Amino acid sequence: MAGGSDAVETTLSCVQCGKPAHLQCPKCMELKLSREGAAFCTQDCFKASWTSHKSVHLKAKLSSLGTGTPGENINLINEGWLYCLKKGQARAPKLPHFDWTGTLRPYPISSKRTVPAFIDQPDWAVDGIPKIEPKSDWQHVVEIKTPDQIEKMRETCRIARDVLDAAARAIRPGVTTDEIDRVVHEATIAAGGYPSPLNYHFFPKSCCTSVNEVICHGIPDARKLEDGDIVNVDVTVYFKGVHGDLNETFFVGNVDESSKQLVQCTYECLEKAISIVKPGVRFRELGEVINRQALMSGFSVVRSYCGHGIGELFHCAPNIPHYARNKAVGVMKAGQTFTIEPMINTGVWRDRMWPDGWTAVTADGKRSAQFEHTLLVTETGVEVLTARLPSSPDVFPWLKA
Amino acid sequence: MEEEGEDPPLAVQIQERDPKPHRDNDLCVGVTVITGYLGAGKSTLVNHILKAQHGKRIAVILNEFGEEIGVERAMINEGESGALVEEWVELANGCICCTVKHSLVQALEQLVQRKERLDHILLETTGLANPAPLASVLWLDDQLESAVKLDSIITVVDAKNLRFQLKGNHDSSSLTEAFLQIAFADVVILNKVDLVSPEGSGGALEELEKEIRSINSLATIIRSVRCQVDLSEILDRQAYDATVSDRNLLSHVTNVKALLEESQSLSTRDRHDGVRTLCICEPRKVVLEKVRLWLEEILWDKRYGMDVYRCKGVLSVQNSDQLHTLQAVREIYEIVPTRKWKMEEAQINKIVFIGHNLNEENLTGSLKCCTLTSSSS
Known about the structure:
Chain B: InterPro entries: CobW-likC_sf, CobW-like_C, CobW/HypB/UreG_nucleotide-bd, P-loop_NTPase, Zinc-reg_GTPase_activator. Chain B: It holds the Pfam family cobW. Chain B: It comes from Cephalotus follicularis. Chain B: This is CobW domain-containing protein/CobW_C domain-containing protein. The structure holds two protein chains of two kinds. By secondary structure, chain A is α+β, with helices and mostly antiparallel strands. Chain A folds into two domains: about 5-55, no CATH class; about 130-400, Creatinase/methionine aminopeptidase superfamily (Creatine Amidinohydrolase, Alpha-Beta Complex). Chain A has helices spanning about 25-30, 45-65, 70-80, 130-135, 145-170, 175-190, 255-275, 285-295, and strands at about 10-15, 20, 25, 40, 85, 90, 195, 210, 215, 230-240, 240-250, 300, 305-310, 315-320, 335-340, 345, 350-355, 360, 370, 375, 380-385. In chain A, strands 7, 8, 10 and 11 form a four-stranded antiparallel beta sheet that branches. In chain A, strands 9-18-17 form a three-stranded antiparallel beta sheet, with no helix packed on it. Chain A has a three-stranded antiparallel beta sheet with strand order 12-16-19, with helices on one face. In chain A, helix 5 runs antiparallel to helix 6 (about 175-190) and helix 7 packs antiparallel against helix 8. The longest helix of chain A is centred in the middle third of the chain and has 24 residues, at about 145-170. Chain B is α/β, with parallel strands linked by helices. In chain B, the strands form two sheets. In chain B, strands 5-4-3-6-2-7-8-9 form an eight-stranded mixed beta sheet, sandwiched between helices. A five-stranded antiparallel beta sheet of chain B has the order 10-14-11-12-13, sandwiched between helices. Strand 3 (about 25) of chain A pairs antiparallel with strand 1 of chain B, so a sheet runs across the interface.
């Protein structure tokens, strides 16, 4: 068949000890739960983890009771929190029907946050529809930024970095993604910026929070982060007429070995890609580098979403696929600004869309991680505009000196 | 649920689950773009395809590509019974937002998923001068394993009015629609031939075909009356499928070369400061990386002031026993190794260019440079 998928069947890791696993919990199989939470290397490890493992069954059973709204959310519905539908253009009081790929479910979302009038807003802020962006010439030609634009982008990207760092500090078990969104929203406004995602094509919140099997564009909602989760927070700030975009995947409490490997590998994929950025390099090459790095660890690369040009527009040329053998057009030139944002999956590369029209999840329910930077091509190489600062929270174990 | 006991049940050996490829070729639906002047017969062609008793289930999308329309109208031919079912195909308006697939592609994929069986999709363009943007959107990377793929671009041409349309506005710098639509076509349906030569006798029609070929020698020309064409000639062309059409590509390109050599008397350089086809050859094996750079300079940097619309060829690559196919539409190109050269085949590079301001000498000369390895003099 054409194309040969790059998805490799990963070796599962034992939940208890991390060694390669070839046994799985039969109850999890019966409940059709994700294999990665049910894998063990020996019956002994299974036995040793049994007391804590069986809570997975209980949790799954509870969340699947009825197709309606889980009991815990009834109160929220009564307070006006609703489920998001139709890309953000509609709300519903009941959990929508879907053949969920993993254990995660959407939760109701809070009402729309407001932005003070004195803050400069992009043209979608009021009615949800970008007008300038779709028609712009910059969808077809890659803009070379002027020194003035570059200076503005440095500033905006710095703000975006600070906002993400604030979000990172708020992450711990028991905190809802809605709370993270509130932190992002308030930090952005405090800096005088507008949170670009808010109302972009009707997106209902100020950042994207993507938990576990969510690949990207997760909508912040009432779900509390749980010990063992991984969560990506994607922040974009609009300030002085330009956008700055970055994201990082964080650990919530203690995560399993597989998740640690996934997140670190994803970080390295981005790092590797950035390391080849300089004038004359083809955009197409980034996908080759990322793919090689991911495959080395047995992970797969998401193909439906790509990096993008950024500046006065949120999304513009070039399109940067993260997979190998892509036909991306163009070579890098000094003065270009764009993002690279690989999404790496534990299992298969395919994605599916939730009924809300935004949340992309892995087709097999296994976890996905992502990292993103906004980059400037310089005469000799690259400047990472959204780079970590000395003040950034120390949340990535592999970065410790 | 009953309380689970103190001891776990016996863990079960994991079966290595094989992630089944999401589509086999059956599920990958070809998309044919139909373009042409108003009145040439596009709608006639579409109706013919829909109504002909062929047992295929075909959807037609009427596309105002380039306009801000959220919903397109789709008509689906329900196969045997021939009944037409009209329904709306919703284009998720916009969110270009970091998705690889254009909203049109996503809409087509959703259509394929919704339907029990769809054999082909026709995209009828209206008011569109240049089919190239549509081709770029539909010519997806194989890696995406999409449920839809670009099958071919068909241009319907009005035999009666073609000459007039080609003469168009020579004084203006923009080429007439007719040139562009023919240049990007994989198939040209020369329609209304009965109006040009009712008995079917040659002269005038042959002249028209020569005109068309001088613009685009890669396209297949089909004569028709009221667009009554054989479906097997226009569906499942697989014109953008490198792996499938490799053998055809080699003979195709060779035929084009022969055609061009035959028509040397037609000095195409003077006839149209418009669009023409040329074919260059290079017997020595090329360095792949150099060819890429060469092609990118031509397609991306508009080297020598040339404007290339389409490009198709076979490459004979150094340090490889594989025949490589080359295909380009505007700036998008791909070079793919497809299969081993056969014993009886002459391993020669043959590349066909369709474009404006093409300079044969420059192209031949610069391709020659691609045969030099850095160590050779």
